[in-house]
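User: Hi! I'm working on a homework problem where we have to compare a predicted structure to a textbook description. Could you give me the structure for the chain below?
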Amino acid sequence: MRERTIIHLNVADFAVAVERAMDRRLRQRPLIIAAEGAARATVYDMSEEAYQNGVRKKMALRRALRHCPDAAVLPLHPDRYERAMAKFLEYALAYSPRIEMTDYQGHLFIDATGTQKLFGPPPDIARRIRKAVRRHMDLDPIWSVAPNKLVAKVATRLVKPAGEYIVETGSEAAFLQPLPVGLIPGIELSDLKCLQQLNLTHIHQMTGLSLEQLDILFDQRSQTLYNAVRGIDLSPVLPVGQKRPSISAGHLFGDDTNDILLAESALYRLVEQTGADLRGKGLVTGRIKITLDYSDGRRAIRQAFVHPASANDFYLFSRAKSTLEQACKRRVRIRHLHLMCDRLTYAPAQQALLAPFEAEKKRTDRLMAAMDDIRSRFGSDALRVGRTFAVSPLSQRDL
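Assistant: Happy to help. Predicted structure tokens:
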């Protein structure tokens, strides 16, 4: 197999960096970005100064301001960050058609394999892109060069908030060995606690576990994590314009219906399907999209961002239910309901310990893990949530 060279560019604290680029006065004080007008607003992003004062993502805004009372608070501007990402992408496109945006938070993967004769060594490409972005956008990306996406991402995590890192081909496993387990993408907070109970805190300790032993701890994700701690990642960098990964499921009603309770029951079954798929792959979704096909041939599509990104059925259903209500505005019967989850990313391990409702989140995450275990042993219908009994599991279809 041909050796790959992957560049990872990351603008640390991207939302903050974009706001500061637009208003230089914001550089003189700590900055917190949170949803405007929300009764229980949480921190979306924060500057390095606020972070050093104890502010964390998803922390309640009131608590964050107690940690950092001098911080300026700005409302969230997703459209602004998307435009900045599009421009960031433009400066990288000159060097490779294979560039992947994993999210809209300042991350780009560039496959620089085979470009050396045209543009020189990959580290030089990374430096040129950084120079152009600093000059024209007033943003300062950190970068790494590595043989695959996973190792490149870990490398940029090491040098955040500013710096560069090069991991040579063949040294992936040695590079990862001394690092904390929490730096591996896909390791969740619940996983870390489980590993800590077994005194497994560093990657070199996990590489001592066999695949069979990892099966006991991680079930369906064991093979993925077995490879990850060894620096093995064969996932490609998706070409610009290629359809992004997504997980979806659909339900075709036996008889067209305008019963909203029946539609919600079907929706919950779809959430369960997609949620189980996400958790099995160690992923979370940042956006959900609902499509309704009516009996008269018309279609309604609504979408909603999921923040923080999640794979928890209970949390996803609350977002999906409100999105369904927005889509279901006609008095015409519904024929088909489709749910799609995209903007997929690895579940973050280092979540805010003081985030609001953290105790409730831990409880529901444990419940989800227990339900997944029962269903994997005895079948998907061995355990069902009451609201789904309005819809027969035989009528569920992946479409």
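For your comparison, note the following. The mean pLDDT is 85. The chain is about 40% helix and 20% strand. Good luck with the assignment!
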